[in-house]
Every structure is written in C-alpha cells, then in structure tokens.
C-alpha cells in the first residue's frame, strides 16, 4: 500500500519546527528531507529513521521494521510525539550527508 498524500502532509505538519522541509516521492513512497538531508523515509504510512548510535538513547524502546523489501532495519518514528521527534532529528541530522547532485548524461548522436 503506497503512502497517502494525507499522511505525508500530516508528517510535514508535525515537522513544522524545522525550517527547510522537502519531499521527494519515489515508487509510491516518500523521503522527507530536512535541511537538504534525507531524514525520514515514509513507507506504507509509517515513518522510519536510520538506526544510528546518535538516536539510540531516544529510540531504544521504539518499534523497528524494514521500510521495504531488501532494506536495512530502521527505527519507526512516532511523529505524534513532537518532543521526541525533535530530539531524534536534532541528534541524527549532523550525521546525515547532503546528497551530491547527479551529473546529467550527455546523449551522443
């Protein structure tokens, strides 16, 4: 079941404490970028964050799951808890890299 636009909008509303939010849809699912960093993967209306040592103190009791087949295990983020979400993302963002722009391939004729 792909992620619904209503749920993506709900997540964005819950993340309004961050100034720069961007979404990128892919294959019916969504990546939420914060400050140009891929921070939250939303699959099947469930928000996931990377299992990183920086967020372990906040999410040690959180549910975990695989966002999609073949993915690594992720923490499931409770976006309803605004304080927890803020703490997790503040801890995680410094460790997330800004993706480099892809070079366009030139088509030779």
Structure description:
The protein is of the alpha+beta class and 109 residues long. The chain has one domain: Alpha-Beta Complex (Aspartate Aminotransferase, domain 1), CATH 3.90.1150. 23% of the residues lie in helices and 27% in strands. It contains three helices and six strands. The protein has a six-stranded antiparallel beta sheet with strand order 1-2-3-4-6-5, covered by helices on one side. It is globular. The relative contact order is 0.18. The model has no long low-confidence stretch (mean pLDDT 91).
Order of helices and strands: HEEEEHEEH
| Percent helix | 10-25%
- Outline type: globular
- Radius of gyration, CA atoms, in whole angstroms: 15 Å
Instruction: Provide the CATH top-level class.
Output: Alpha Beta
Any idea of the CATH topology? Aspartate Aminotransferase, domain 1
Q: Average pLDDT value?
A: 91
- Counted by DSSP, the helix tally is 3
Adjacency order of strands in the biggest sheet? 1-2-3-4-6-5
Count of DSSP E strands? 6
Estimate the strand proportion. 25-35%
Structural class: alpha+beta
Give the terminus-to-terminus CA distance.
Answer: 41 Å
